[in-house]
Design a protein that fits this description.
Blueprint (H helix, E strand, L loop, with lengths): L11 E4 L3 E7 L2 H6 L7 E3 L2 H10 L5 E6 L1 H11 L4 E8 L2 H12 L3 E7 L4 E8 L5 E8 L11 H4 L4 E5 L6 H14 L2 E5 L3 H6 L1 H10 L3 E5 H8 L3 H9 L4 E5 L5 E5 L2 E5 L12 H14 L4 H16 L8 H16 L1
């Protein structure tokens, strides 16, 4: 299917994996026994995903819409912005659920549908300390192809945000980056996972210098990317892009734009689930940037979004927390 150009009046467009998260509480010993690196993301096939779910069949589970970039776009929309998301789902109940929840968040979902492959799932394993570990079956998401994304379809917003997870489909990410650059769009990327960075370091450094304008990374991804601490990594990343953002979870975050650098403390909240916190933070920061705010104001919105995310279960904010974030973002824009 090839999309025709349509007017959407979007501020940002995200492209990534459309997934449904299945969240289950586990202990560290389960992760160790299944060889799943704590805090990381492991790609699994359908058989392995089923095997893990079978082993946890007696444990309570929660379903929520997921996918890193889709979560970022939901956070952006919760702030009051106009966000769009391109992703591929299966013609199944999971796909219908993802569509409903994404649109309910206020995101324009430009969906592609596979008739043969099911919607992808992200098995999200949460340990008692609130840390999340992913065993991801990409499903239909892996079938998203350059042919389905013509230049005029990608050119619906001044900013394009992508996840480093897309590097597993190198032809696709190359197409998106080259097209966005040719369109004159700004490109934002979240480095996504320390495993992704370790396995694709040379490529990531290449595109960071040639195509990326905004880069998000957490402390583990920074270490994999530069071999340095978060604060030291901020300087290195800021040399190859316009805006560098380093997230340290409960230790706060750092943002650099040119010669200007700021550090922000994290909000003190009761941590229930860290799943989606970094995505919520990124959505808040991008909202501020798209509104032309100073990087400190952008950071405050992101910090507020991340704090709300960890205080609840699920990767996307509840209706009440979304209202709280929208009010905070609106007041921040007025200053």
């Amino acid at each position: 299917m090839v999309w025709k150009a349509i007017e959407m009046n979007l501020e940002i467009l995200g492209i990534g994996s459309a997934l449904v998260d299945i969240t289950i509480q586990v202990d560290d010993s389960f992760l160790e026994s299944e060889d799943l690196p704590k805090g990381g993301m492991t790609l699994v096939d359908a058989q392995r995903s089923k095997e893990l779910l079978d082993k946890l069949s007696l444990e309570p589970r929660e379903f929520s819409p997921g996918g890193a970039t889709a979560n970022v776009m939901a956070s952006f929309a919760h702030c009051g912005g106009k966000a769009g998301f391109i992703g591929k789902i299966g013609a199944d109940e999971m796909g219908e659920y993802f569509t409903k929840e994404t649109e309910k968040a206020g995101v324009t979902f430009l969906k592609l549908v596979s008739q043969e492959t099911p919607t992808g799932t992200g098995l999200t394993l949460v340990t008692p300390d609130g840390q999340r570990t992913f065993a991801t079956h990409l499903g239909a998401s892996v079938e998203l192809s350059p042919a389905e994304l013509p230049a005029d379809f990608i050119n619906h917003a001044p900013v394009v945000h992508v996840e480093a997870y897309l590097i597993f489909n190198r032809d696709l990410i190359d197409h998106i980056l080259d097209t966005a650059k040719a369109n004159g769009q700004k490109v934002s990327m979240d480095l996504s996972s320390f495993g992704v960075v370790q396995e694709n370091l040379e490529y990531l450094k290449k595109i960071a210098d040639s195509h990326l304008d905004i880069i998000f990374a957490n402390e583990d991804e920074c270490l994999a990317f530069t071999g340095l601490s978060p604060r030291e990594s901020l300087d290195i990343i800021a040399e190859v892009c316009d805006i560098a953002i380093v997230k340290e979870g409960g230790a706060g975050s750092h943002i650099a734009r040119g010669d200007e650098k700021i550090s922000l403390a994290a909000n003190e909240v009761c941590v229930m689930d860290t799943n989606g916190a970094g995505d919520a933070y990124a959505g808040g920061v991008l909202y501020g940037l798209c509104r032309g705010l100073h990087i400190e104001s952008c950071g405050h919105i992101g910090t507020h979004a991340g704090g709300l995310a960890v205080s609840q279960r699920g990767a996307r904010l509840t209706n009440e927390n979304a209202r709280i974030l929208c009010d905070f973002a609106s007041k921040t824009c007025q200053y």
